UniProtKB/TrEMBL annotation:
Keyword check for Hydrolase: yes
HAMAP family with a match to the protein in the record: Germination_prot
Quaternary structure note: Homotetramer.
Purpose of the protein: Initiates the rapid degradation of small, acid-soluble proteins during spore germination.
GO biological process: proteolysis; spore germination
Alphabetical list of Pfam families matching this protein: Peptidase_A25
Reactions catalysed, as given in the entry: Endopeptidase action with P4 Glu or Asp, P1 preferably Glu > Asp, P1' hydrophobic and P2' Ala
Family under the similarity heading: Belongs to the peptidase A25 family.
Known EC number: 3.4.24.78
Entry superkingdom: Bacteria
UniProt-recorded name of the protein: Germination protease
Organism field: Candidatus Avidehalobacter gallistercoris
Length: 323
């Protein structure tokens, strides 16, 4: 039976970028799965892969996102001193997930995969998309069918942000897609986390597209199959957390230390303290200058390995730029 949720809890879950966080928030400590939702987990060499599958309209209504697959690759070791060692195993896992979602590449198919890196290169926390694209080697302009055993045609763009271009990002991508007729679009973007522990430690991949800026309350037009007419995959990693979440978690810890059982108090404290900012204050870790380039390289390597037949083993760096 579907659990009854209060309006505030549902609204928060539906506003979250990370499906795994929305699922965890609504499921709570219960052992019963949400109606219309399937959850599974498996471990790999350096982390865990969690799949949230929204099966029907009921699941979509509850979690506030489209029917489809939302896969989170958790990389707890990315904050460690030897995090560079994650590039090979983490990119292999990303490639494994993406390969199942991308249209099958046939030797006679010259339609490219279009990659779009969203965000602002000048802002560290928003630079994941452009940084990933900086490592991608486009092949569409020189691809020939005799190369199909080694490479796939790939085109890549960084459409910028509407504040710099004056044009909706979705419209720019649609214009390019209309010219090159891609087999699919892969969008890469920075996300926002609900939990402090979720920042820069997990990569989400979904097959339902993306709405840029939704995690920081800056809603733009959705980039999805309905709008573009081709499959749209979205890859993202949380680089910021809402300041309200930091206050809420800190207040909860303090109440636990004081053995005070007031579940709503942390939320009330956070809302009161942040009322002058209208919930628009977000924060990124001080290590972002190191973590963003590393995460971008991991994602770019994963995409490269998923796309090019010749990049499936340890030689994937030969198919990239700036490595």
């Amino acid at each position: 039976m579907q659990k009854n949720y209060n309006a505030r809890l549902l609204a928060e879950a539906r506003s979250l970028d990370m499906a795994i966080e929305a699922h965890s928030l609504l499921k709570g400590d219960g052992d019963v799965e949400l109606e219309g939702v399937r959850h599974s987990e498996r471990e790999f060499k350096c982390g865990k892969t969690v799949t949230i599958e929204i099966l029907n309209k009921q699941g979509a209504k509850t979690l506030g996102r489209d029917i489809g697959h939302y896969i989170t690759i958790e990389l707890p070791g990315i904050h460690e001193a030897d995090a560079a060692s994650l590039i090979e195993p983490a990119s292999a896992e990303i490639a494994k997930v993406l390969a199942k979602m991308l249209p099958r590449f046939e030797a006679g198919d010259a339609r490219p995969i279009l990659l779009a890196g969203l965000g602002n290169f000048q802002t560290t926390a928003d630079a994941i998309g452009p940084r990933v694209i900086s490592h991608i080697q486009p092949t569409n302009h020189f691809f020939r069918r005799e190369f199909a055993s080694e490479i796939r045609p790939v085109a890549a763009i960084t459409p910028g942000v509407v504040g710099n271009t004056g044009v909706e990002t979705a419209a720019l991508i649609k214009g390019v897609a209309g010219e090159i007729d891609p087999a699919a679009l892969v969008v890469i973007d920075a996300l926002a986390a609900r939990s402090i522990g979720g920042v820069m430690s997990s990569i989400q991949i979904c097959d339902t597209g993306i709405r840029p800026g939704s995690g920081v309350q800056n809603h733009r037009r959705a980039i999805n199959r309905e709008y573009l007419g081709v499959p749209v995959l979205a890859v993202g990693i949380p680089t910021v957390v809402q300041a309200q979440s930091i206050i809420r978690e800190s207040a909860s810890l303090c109440l636990m230390e004081l053995d005070v059982n007031r579940a709503d108090l942390p939320e009330q404290v956070a809302e009161q303290m942040l009322s002058p900012f209208e919930h628009n204050l977000v924060m990124t870790p001080k290590e972002a200058d190191e973590l963003v380039p590393l995460a971008s390289l991991i994602i770019a390597a994963g995409i490269t390995r998923a796309l090019h037949p010749g990049a499936s083993d340890g030689s994937f760096a030969e198919y990239m730029q700036g490595v």
